[in-house]
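Quick one before lunch.
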Amino acid sequence: MKTQAVTVPSITTRKKSGKKITALTAYDYNFAKLLDRTSIDILLVGDSLGMVSQGNANTLSVTLEDIVYHTRCVNKGVQRALVVADMPFMSYQVSVESAVTNAGILIQQGGAAAVKLEGGGRIISQVNAIIKAGIPVMGHVGLTPQSVHQFGGYKIQGKTFLDSKQIKQDAKDLQKAGVFALVLEGIPEELAAEITIDLEIPTIGIGAGSKCDGQILVTHDLLGLNPDFAPKFVKRYAYLSDVIQNSVKDFINEVQNETFPGSEHTYNLKQIALKQVNDDR
Ligand code: KIV
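Model of the 3-methyl-2-oxobutanoic acid complex:
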């Protein structure tokens, strides 16, 4: 049985404790297992998988089936962290009814404990209905990547008085609707700090400064798996692209010069026979 030490209520009450919440993305079993063995609080099966794993220019072509598939894979590797599944583009915008149905699929078929939706006021009816169905919701405001075309690119949001007022209002509306935590993405640190102080639910920032109640990053960015992607808000804690490429170069060299496979990686009849004799004794 899976023991889920991190629960939705435990994330919400963490705000009072002052201990920062940590969250990362996960898309597959092996990464999920490795991350879960740390003390990471939340694993988000983000629609960022459209860019990170599928190589698309944005997240818009990710489907509900994609998220269900990846959430299932992640869930198999997780014993402790809270698994949150992203609701992809067009899985909640069309109607309240389809939003609840699709959120239910992510819980029932994917095995997520909660779902995340992008947007504020304009999706409040969907958020209300999903929560009413007993499904915990994480909010997401600011630079919401599913609105990339509306923003005209991945641009920092909340820079003008009116825009920041709207984001603050969206945050309050989402809290009122009952979201258990709120992702603040790509906004000035001053605005993120103000929202964090104003809200009773925790804020989790990405490109939103240090004053949020927690931080989330795309795991592949943190580990330096894509040498071509280094935005300002990402800190690379490792350069795994170098590690991977150097390891593969070593493999190629060793195959070419016939030092791999060595005897320790090879089965031969004499050893097999000897093992059989020993096993029979
Ligand atoms: O899709 C995603 O990975 C996200 C986070 C980066 C917040 O939404």
